[in-house]
Amino acid sequence: MATPASPYRIALLAFPGIRAFDVSVITEVWGSDRTDRGAPAFDLRRVATDTTTPVPMRGGMALLPDRTLTWLARADLVVVPGLDDHLTPAPTPVLDALRRAHARGTTIAALCGGAFTLAQAGLLDGRRAITHWNLISLFRAHHPQVTVVPDALFIEDDNIWTAAGTAAGIDLCLHLVRRSHGAEAAATIARSMVTAPFRTGTQAQFIEHPTPRADRDADTLAAVREHALRHLHEPLTVAGLAAHAGMSARSFARHFTAETGTTPLRWLLDQRVVAAQKLLERTDLPMPEVARRAGFGSEVTMRQHFASRLATSPRAYRAAFSTTPAPVSKAADSSPIAR
């Protein structure tokens, strides 16, 4: 995690053929100053083979780079936009720079068809990756050495992140903010962008069009989700939520998954993790109280879900992202949150 004196450094990797939409997403997430609202400071740079030639994009737009590829050695994160033509070959210096960045341990992320660029560099060989659902067959045909995981919004393998199309790129960018700076920072940026602050990467990226009945149920299901968020501290069950919606448990689960791309139970657990993250960042409440307010019931259960979803513990998360002063105790064993 970057210190306040050293803003988190992001390299937007630019070369001819990149999508203007993905460039806009990357710029909106990391290129706007929101420090007055409590968001961290970022240092976003547009990196290309040289800084004298604008990078052309579709629709008559162009991107003016401000750093050369050597700046990747300073970056904490390299983000590769998707492509208008998904088989566009990246310049050899760009591919070489990506390989060197990965060898240094730099986090690399690709949005949508940007996975094709990472595959050209050989960075996805033998690894799991995802791209837009409509490009999966093309991707597999050209890069059979990559293990494609079709039912995901974004995925990570060996510090390389790939995302499905369009909105999933926003999801991945916000997830990367959450991963490096905490849930509150990601939520602040999401509110500014008027987008959802949290969609788990394991959601299905392609949601079938709802049936007419599901259309009529949409408002009901939204109301149920709002009810669940207001009562996370209670022992909610899928059967109870279905009853609140006036549906059978089976019908509720089917419509919920069709509308959100995830199951009611997984959605509920994800919301409890987010609630716990915010409590850990904003308060110095003891761990059992954080677990209770987030609806986990016990600290042990909360630890298990943090480990499976965030690959960390609640205590380590608090140590990394807490915005409150650490409580001072006379002795370690007298602290209500000491372990």
Descriptive report:
It is built from 13 helices and eleven strands. The protein has 339 residues and is of the alpha/beta class. The strands form three sheets. The protein has a seven-stranded mixed sheet, with helices on both faces. A two-stranded antiparallel sheet has the order 3-4. It is globular. It starts with 7 loop residues before the first strand and ends in an 18-residue tail after the last helix. Mean pLDDT is 86; it is low at 201-216 and 326-339.
Radius of gyration: 21 Å
Strand order of the largest sheet: 5-2-1-6-7-11-10
In DSSP terms (H or I, runs of 4 or more residues), the helix count works out at 13
Low-confidence stretches: 201-216, 326-339
Number of strands: 11
Mean pLDDT: 86
Give the helix/strand layout.
Elements: E1 8-13, H1 20-30, E2 42-48, E3 55-56, E4 62-63, E5 67-68, E6 77-80, H2 92-104, E7 107-110, H3 114-120, E8 128-129, H4 136-142, E9 147-148, E10 154-157, E11 160-163, H5 167-181, H6 183-193, H7 212-230, H8 238-245, H9 249-260, H10 264-282, H11 287-294, H12 299-310, H13 314-321
Parallel strand pairs: 1-2, 1-6, 2-5, 6-7, 7-11, 8-9
Antiparallel strand pairs: 3-4, 10-11
How would you concisely characterize the structure shown here?
The protein has 339 residues and is an alpha/beta fold.
